[in-house]
Amino acid sequence: MNNRIQIFDTTLRDGEQVPGCQLNREEKIEVAKELEKLGVDIIEAGFPISSPGDFASVKAIAEVITEATVCGLTRARKEDIDAAAEALKPARKPRIHTGIGASDVHIKHKFNSTREKIIEQAIWAVEYAKSYVEDVEFFAEDAGRADLPFLAQLTQAVIKAGATVVNLPDTTGYLLPHQMHHRISYLFEHVDNIHQATISMHNHNDLGLATANTIAGIQAGARQVEVTINGIGERAGNTSLEEVAMILNVHKDLGFTTGINPKHLFPISNLVSNLMGMPVQANKAVVGANAFAHSSGIHQDGFLKHAQNYEIMNPEDVGVPSSAILLTSRSGRAALRHRLQLLGFELEKPELDKLYTRFLLMADERKMIHDEDLKELVG
Ligand code: KIV
Ligand code: ZN
C-alpha cells in the first residue's frame, strides 16, 4: 500500500466557519499561497454556493494556485455542484467535494429520508459532479455514528459511481481511536472496490481526540487527512495540521510520509491566528507559545545538559526561532546561571547562592522574571 499521506487542508472552509473568523478574499488568497508553500496537496478553498463572497474567493484561489489541487464543497444538490464547478473552472487541478449525511440520525432528522434514497442521491451527486471534473470526493457526513454495514454499502456505491476519494468524517468528534481503527479496517475488509479510491479522515475535536482518531484511521488504511492550521473549525475544531504532520515526522518508524515542509508550520500558524483574530492556546502542541518553553528547575537543568532530555523536536525544524528557558519561582540555579551568563554575568557559587535566594523572593512576587529584573537583582 502507498504510504504517502495526502494532506487536505480545510482551514479556508471548515476552519473559516468559526464565528468571527471570516477572512476577506485577499486574506484567503494569502493563506492559500502559504498553504501551497507549506506543501499541502489539496486546498479546500470554500463552499461556493454559500455566498457570493465565498464563490469569488474559491475562484480567485483557483486562479493563483499552481501545484495543489483546489477543492470546493457542495451538498448533494444540483445548484451547489453547478456553483462549485463554475468557481473551480480556472483551477489547474479542480476537485468537487460533495456528499450527504450517512448516520441514521442525519438521515431521519436532517433529511427526513431513508437509507435507500440516500444511496441514490449520493450516486447521482457523484455522477453529476463527474460530468464537470475527473476528481470527485464524496463525504459521508457523520460516518462516525453511521451503521457500519450501511456505510460499507454507501462507500461501495459512490466508488462505483466514480468517486476518487471517500471521506468518512467523524463530524461530531464522537469516536475513540480504537473504534475509528475498527471502522476503517471493517470497510477495507467489506468494500470490494475500496482500493479504487483514497479513503480520507476528517475528524472533529469535541472530545479532544481528532488527531488521535486521524492517526488511527491512517494506521487502518486511510491515505488522506483533512486538517486545519491550529486545529480551528466548527465547535471544538478540526484535526490540527501541525500535529498530524509532526506525529508522522517524529514517528518515522510508522513509515508514512507527507509533502509538508515543517519549517513553515510556525509562520503559517501565526499568519492564520493573526488574520482570524484567533489566539493559539499557549500549551498547543507544536506551535503554542509554551511548546518549546521550559520552566521548572528539574526540566531546565536537564534541558541545559542536553536538549533531547526534554525535547522530541527541534524548535527550528518547525520554524520556531529557539527554545526558551522561562524564569519563575519554580526555576533552579542552573537556569538562573544560564540566563545570567547570556547577559554577561559570571558569578561564583557563593555569590550565585545568595542571588538565588533573592531571585526566589522576587519571582514569588513578580511571577515571571525578565532580563530587566535580573539586572536589577545583580545591581
Ligand atoms: O464535518 C463534516 O462532516 C464536514 C463535511 C462537510 C465534510 O465538514
Ligand atoms: Zn467538518
From TrEMBL:
Give one Pfam family, short name only: HCS_D2
Species name: Aquirufa nivalisilvae
Pathway membership of this protein? Amino-acid biosynthesis; L-leucine biosynthesis; L-leucine from 3-methyl-2-oxobutanoate: step 1/4
Q: Does the keyword Manganese apply?
A: yes
One annotated GO biological process: L-leucine biosynthetic process
Q: Which gene encodes it?
A: leuA
From the Swiss-Prot or TrEMBL record, give the protein name: 2-isopropylmalate synthase
Q: What is its EC number?
A: 2.3.3.13
Q: Name one GO molecular function term.
A: 2-isopropylmalate synthase activity
As for family, the record states: Belongs to the alpha-IPM synthase/homocitrate synthase family. LeuA type 1 subfamily.
- InterPro entries linked: 2-IPM_HCS-like, AIPM/Hcit_synth_CS, Aldolase_TIM, LeuA/HCS_post-cat, PYR_CT
Q: What's its top-level EC category?
A: transferase
Ordered alphabetically, the record's keywords are: Acyltransferase, Amino-acid biosynthesis, Branched-chain amino acid biosynthesis, Leucine biosynthesis, Manganese, Transferase
